[in-house]
Write a structure and sequence with these properties.
Blueprint: H1 12-34, H2 39-48, H3 51-158, H4 161-175, H5 182-249, H6 254-277, H7 283-294, H8 298-316, H9 325-349, H10 356-380, H11 384-402, H12 409-415, H13 422-439, E1 447-448, H14 451-457, E2 474-475, H15 481-502, H16 509-535, H17 539-567, H18 571-576, H19 584-606, H20 625-641, H21 647-670, H22 679-698, H23 705-712, H24 716-726, H25 736-742, H26 748-758, H27 778-793
Antiparallel strand pairs: 1-2
Length: 794
């Protein structure tokens, strides 16, 4: 080795310059290595005029990096050489893998070729299957459509238009949108409106033919109805005479009574025959109406029908000037009568084709025209016989149409010209007969030994409560007064109807009803009131009179129905014009008398309440003596009264009696008889109330649930008072909400009076000295609070 040469120490100036250059070199090298901006160095170098130093340093830096680059390239090249060697070693393996994959691919294709062929066949078969299914569904749909079309054509050919429309509606709603065949769909869309139009034209033509035909039918129908009314008037006269004869001999002969009943049956057969003769064919009208409903043209058809019928009515209401009215009046009135008989049938069976207001409008129009014609014709007529002939025929027209519910008051104003004092005389005779019948009454239930007596006294006035004939001898719930008075009233009705109908009065039912109301409300009611006020003195008598009044209530229904039947008025019109029960005054008087007598009887038992020990510490287990006596009497009364009194009358009477018992007990508790009360006495009264409640429960078979609840309200004041006194917090009475809910029937003055008597003396001012250290009973404290609050209120 060579020893290093000794360095020369530079001089001071040279050393300083070299250190500066080395510093710049280090800074430039550091900037180049760090990739910093060399701009400042370049500007400094050129600024000093020495760029050689910078270039020298750059070249040195480049040479130093070239060696590093060379070393890096050598390292990377060696890795590349190694990788190439590795690839060359894998080349043979790749070739063998390639040949193996080629063989596998060949085998796979040879094996999968048949499967691919089968898969293609399967896909094709599935496509064909779907197409076939779609075709089958389309064909099935088309077949169902064609079946409906074929069925609709058959119905059209056979004239079953409604069924044809149903088929068309089914096609349109269920099949038209689902039809895939455009040709078939277009055909259906075109034909459906045409079919509906065809059906509408056909039924409209049938309706037009029916409107022409019904005018002839109406005229014949009106003539038939008026003819039957005339025959009925003659039969009515004959029947009335026979019934009078049978009535006179009914007390002596069974044969005559049966004869009269047979005449009634003959009359019933006549009435049924009259109804059967009114049959006429409305099928074309209802068919057209039904078809138009199916076509959603209901309102238009109603308007069309009403307009046509109104035009027909106006045409029928015109009087020909070429023919004397005396000769044409029967055809004129028969045409109008038949018109409204048809309209009544259409109203009742047409399902809303024409409304009652429209029929009434047509009837008012017809009545106005008829009144104008009658006024005009009557003003021209100079022969009384002619006027009477037309008047009689118009009265028959009124009788015929009244059966169908048409009012003829306007025609009555033209026709009615006579009323006299006939009914006043008839009322006077009936008054004398009723006074004699009531004077002969013995207030005993009527005994009927034979069937004819039952038929004469019960069935003939429809007084029976059951259609089953009773066993004989039969004891009726009424006395002899009822059938005797019924015979008098029925005779009055028949005489009144006979007079009015003989006079040819059109609407004489109002007159008969008016005087029938007077007979019942003035004559019979006043006679019964006089009987009750002067002759009834015992409970049995009062009970019999009350039972008679209940039977009279059913009899009055018969009277009005009988008067309506004889007057030719439909029963529904008679029921519509019914008023309240005409014997209400005497009925109320009978019930009040019975209640008053029962209250007097109860008061006799209630005197035993004075024997009650109100300060006792023992609770009577079976109730107090007075209440047991009252219950025994009430049970005996009910068992007897329910045999003759209706449940509603018995309920009203018992409710009054129970209310009276409640008032007596409450009055006793509040009165001067009771000075002080114990809780045991209050509980004893509670037992008494329970006995009354048990008694009302026993009445449930006779009353409805609602009536049973109403029965308990008769003693609700007593029950609420006892509940309040037995409660643990009596001061709740002053709570408005609780009072309204549980004690709404109590008067605070009565509550205060009874509470003061119930308060324990030990709780008083002087009684508290000995118990000042003990605690007061909470209930007594609540009771004291209640008493104090009630005193403040008073």
């Amino acid at each position: 080795m060579h020893s290093p040469k000794p360095r020369r120490k530079p001089g001071p100036t040279t050393a300083g310059a070299d250190s500066g250059e080395k510093l710049d070199e280090l800074l430039i090298s550091s900037a180049i290595c760090n990739g910093e901006d060399l701009g400042p160095f370049v500007r400094k170098t050129f600024g000093t005029g020495k760029p050689e130093t910078l270039l020298h340093h750059l070249k040195l830096f480049a040479r130093s990096k070239e060696s590093e680059i060379e070393e890096v390239c050598k390292a990377h090249y060696q890795d590349f050489i190694n990788a190439v060697d590795d690839l060359k070693s894998l080349l043979s393996d790749v070739e063998s893998l390639k040949s193996s994959l080629s063989d596998s691919n060949s085998k796979l294709q040879s094996i999968a070729a048949p499967l691919l062929s089968s898969l293609d066949s399967l896909v094709e078969a599935q496509t064909v299957s779907r197409n076939v299914d779609l075709a089958i569904r389309a064909l099935t749909h088309c077949v169902r459509v064609m079946e409906l079309v074929s069925r609709a054509n058959q119905h059209l050919q056979s004239g079953s238009f409604y069924l044809a429309l149903k088929c068309v509606d089914s096609i349109e709603s269920d099949f038209l949108e689902k039809t895939q065949s455009s040709t078939l769909k277009r055909m259906l869309e075109k034909r459906i409106p045409q079919i509906r139009g065809y059906v509408e034209r056909k039924v409209s033509k049938e309706l037009g033919d029916w409107l022409v035909e019904i005018r002839v039918v109406s005229r014949n129908l009106g003539q038939l109805a008026i003819g039957e009314a005339s025959a009925a008037r003659q039969r009515e006269e004959e029947l009335r005479m026979k019934q009078k004869e049978a009535e006179e001999q009914s007390r002596l002969s069974l044969r005559d009574c049966v004869y009269a009943l047979k005449e009634e049956e003959d009359d019933d057969e006549y009435e049924s025959g009259l109804e059967g003769s009114d049959a006429f064919d409305l099928t074309p009208l209802y068919r057209a109406y039904h078809i138009h409903q199916s076509l959603s043209l209901e309102d238009r058809f109603k308007r069309y029908y009403f307009d046509n019928r109104e035009l027909q009515l106006k045409s029928d209401s015109q009087v020909s000037s070429m023919t004397p009215f005396l000769e044409s009046h029967q055809t004129f009135f028969a045409q109008i009568a038949g018109f409204f008989i048809v309209e009544d049938r259409v109203l009742r069976t047409g399902g809303g084709l024409i409304s009652r207001q429209e029929v009434e409008f047509l009837w008012d129009l017809a009545v106005g025209n008829m009144c104008a014609v009658l006024e005009d014709q009557f003003s021209r007529m100079q022969t009384a016989n002619h006027l009477l002939l037309i008047k009689d025929y118009v009265s028959l027209l009124g009788v015929s149409l009244r059966r169908y519910g048409y009012t003829v008051d306007a025609l009555l104003e033209v026709l009615s010209k006579h009323r006299d004092k006939y009914h006043e005389l008839l009322l006077s005779d009936c008054r004398k007969q009723m006074i004699e019948a009531l004077a002969a009454d013995k207030f005993e239930q009527m005994l009927m030994k034979k069937e004819y007596e039952y038929s004469m006294n019960v069935l003939s006035f429809q007084l029976q409560t059951s259609d089953i004939a009773p066993a004989f001898p039969y004891i009726a719930p009424f006395s002899t007064t009822v059938p005797d008075c019924c015979r008098i009233v029925r005779s009055f009705i028949e005489d009144s109807v006979s007079f009015m109908s003989h006079g040819g009065q059109l609407d004489f039912y109002d007159v008969v009803k008016k005087y029938l109301d007077r007979l019942l409300g003035e004559v019979l009611d006043e006679a019964l009131l006089k009987l009750i006020n002067t002759s009834v003195h015992g409970v049995s008598q009062a009970m019999q009179v009350a039972a008679n009044m209940s039977v009279f209530e059913r009899a009055c229904d018969f009277f009005f129905r009988h008067a309506a039947q004889l007057s030719g008025v439909p029963l529904r019109m008679a029921e519509r014009g019914r008023r309240h029960f005409p014997l209400t005054k005497s009925q109320n008087a009978a019930e009040d008398t019975l209640s008053g007598l029962l209250k007097k009887k109860i008061d006799g038992f209630m005197t035993l309440i004075e024997n009650v020990n109100w300060t006792s510490d023992d609770v009577p287990q079976g109730g107090n003596e007075y209440m047991n006596e009252v219950i025994i009497y009430l049970e005996t009364l009910v068992s007897t009264a329910q045999q003759i009194l209706p449940a509603k009358v018995l309920k009203r009477v018992l409710r009054d009696v129970l209310a009276h018992i409640s008032e007596r007990i409450v009055g006793t508790l509040c009165g001067d008889i009771v000075k002080r009360l114990s809780m045991a006495a209050i509980k004893g009264v509670d037992v008494d109330i329970q006995l009354l409640e048990s008694f009302t429960e026993q009445l449930k078979p006779l009353l409805t649930d609602r009536e049973a609840k109403e029965m308990k309200t008769a003693f609700v004041e007593m029950r609420q008072l006892i509940n309040l006194l037995l409660s643990s917090h009596p001061e709740n009475f002053v709570n408005p909400v609780i009072r309204e809910r549980s004690y709404n029937a109590l008067d605070y003055r009565k509550v205060a009076a009874v509470s003061e008597k119930l308060r324990d003396p030990s709780d008083s001012i002087f009684g508290t000295f000995g118990t000042r250290g003990s605690r007061q009973n909470p209930k007594n404290k609540s009771l004291d609070t209640l008493i104090k609050r009630l005193k403040d209120v008073s």
